[in-house]
Amino acid sequence: MPAPLVEFLQFLFSGITSGAIYALVALGFALIYNASHVINFAQGEFVMLGGMVTWALLSQGIDLPLAIAGAVALTMVVGLALEKLAIEPARNADVVTLIIITIGAGIFLRGLTSVTLGKDLHALPSFSGDEPLSLLGATIMPQSLWILGVTAGIVVLLHGFFNYTLLGKAILATSHNRLAARLVGINVSFVLLLSFGLSALLGAVAGILIAPITATHFEVGIMLGLKGFAAAILGGLGNGVGAIVGGLLLGLIESLGAGYISSDYKDAMAFVVILGVLFFMPSGLFGRRGTERV
Amino acid sequence: MLEIQGLTSHYGRIQALEGVDLTIAEGELVALVGANGAGKTTLLRCISGVQPVTGGRILFEGRDITRAAPQSRVALGICQVPEGRQVFGPLSVEDNLKLGAFRRRGKRVADDLERMYTRFPVLKEKRKQPAGTLSGGQQQMLAICRALMAHPRLLLLDEPSMGLAPLLVGEIFNTVELLKEQGTTLFLVEQNAYAALGIADRGYVLETGGVVLSDTGAALLENARVKEAYLGL
């Protein structure tokens, strides 16, 4: 393979790897947005908790698989508690108020983590070693394959849940028409609770998968949350396919931008994307158009 | 079956219902007529539990359900066909029907689905299509079938004929009469007062949040005030 092509392939692999993580975070945004029209700015904290709690459990001598399960479970409990204790009591408030509540919850979770687990940077071990694999001349880390595989698995499961189960369809129905959903007997507060639980699960998984590559820290959720948000905006807020495509696209834009332009601007790409989408394509790639038939 | 006592409801500071008293007996078809903004839809939403009640009581078979959650009212058999159809547009026709039976589980749901398809073959034909692609009349049929999937004991119908072609209006009213014959208790809100009172056992006239008249359907059709205000005679 010619060198420029190998280089391009290398950027492609790393872009898709981080893109898959952004896609998971973006799906978390989409789930909660659909159920409540709230943008949950504590989504990044779910990502952070996944990585940090896994590290904390590992440091107590617990095996990696068990530590992962524990971290996912704990993050889900946090997500459910956030809905029950902060969102549900304010359910009659307008959406902006609820969004501000999620920002506050995010700050609270960051603070709580820094006090209980410390402010140090921690690396998680890779799930199956650090021996790079060679693919068409470029190298790929086994952890990247884990990320891609788990993300693909989650996407398939979510697709099945929303297309083939009545509960999944009830969530879609609620997001489309809340009044009609209540009139057929769907418990819409349960739907909201469920979507926070699922979003927390997605966030935690993303945080655990990425931690062996980028390490974890109590503030890691800020950037990952914002990038997931950028991916969700790019794909069209509240659209599942859009979240996945937006995530992968953002990952590629970042890695190709860093590779061919300058790595100094890597983190700026996400914000350029947000601005570009908001200026030229406010409903994103797959979003519903601004006008709705009445 | 349903007893409403001194019901009041507000939108913010604006009072929409000012002490409504109303009863519906088992097996009855009761019509509610009134002008736009009289509070008809608000009253139905209070009965379904999706509009907060600020005073008064709602009793269903002697049980106070004033504060019950909407889903527990559906489980008791109070179902509504909302104004403007409100089908789940992006979901398929069949999913809409299945969601109508959300509070029920089991094999009987499949039998009911077949029954709906037999009654309205066009829904079977289009069962895989998104509900939003149906015509207005088909969406209204779907909305009614969706409510029937829950096995209602008291069916609330909010303006089922609104915006439909005259031929379809006739079909809707035939369906309503058929449901009555099958023993469903019905509470029908209609702007088409003539047609509604024509098939109703009893009727109520609502004006600016309160009941101003109540009588048998036939008597209300002959009432001078009703004739002038709602029948355009």
Automatic annotation (TrEMBL), chain A:
It is a multi-pass membrane protein. Keywords: Amino-acid transport, Cell membrane, Membrane, Transmembrane, Transmembrane helix, Transport. The chain crosses the membrane at residues 12-32, 39-58, 64-83, 95-117, 145-167, 179-198, 204-224, 231-253, 268-287. The keyword Ribosomal protein does not apply. Its main location: membrane. One of its GO terms (molecular function) is transmembrane transporter activity. GO terms for cellular component: plasma membrane. GO terms for biological process: amino acid transport. InterPro entries: ABC_transp_permease, BCAA_transport_permease. It comes from the Bacteria. The keyword DNA-binding does not apply. It is found in: Cell membrane. PANTHER family: ABC TRANSPORTER PERMEASE PROTEIN, BRANCHED-CHAIN AMINO ACID TRANSPORT SYSTEM PERMEASE PROTEIN LIVH. Belongs to the binding-protein-dependent transport system permease family. LivHM subfamily. This is Branched-chain amino acid transport system permease protein. It comes from Roseospira goensis.
UniProtKB/TrEMBL annotation, chain B:
One of its GO terms (biological process) is L-amino acid transport. PROSITE patterns: ABC_TRANSPORTER_1, ABC_TRANSPORTER_2. The keyword ATP-binding applies. The keyword Ribosomal protein does not apply. InterPro entries: AAA+_ATPase, ABC_transporter-like_ATP-bd, ABC_transporter-like_CS, BCAA_Transport_ATP-bd_LivF, P-loop_NTPase. Transmembrane segments: none annotated. Residues 2-233 form the ABC transporter domain. This is Branched-chain amino acid transport system ATP-binding protein.
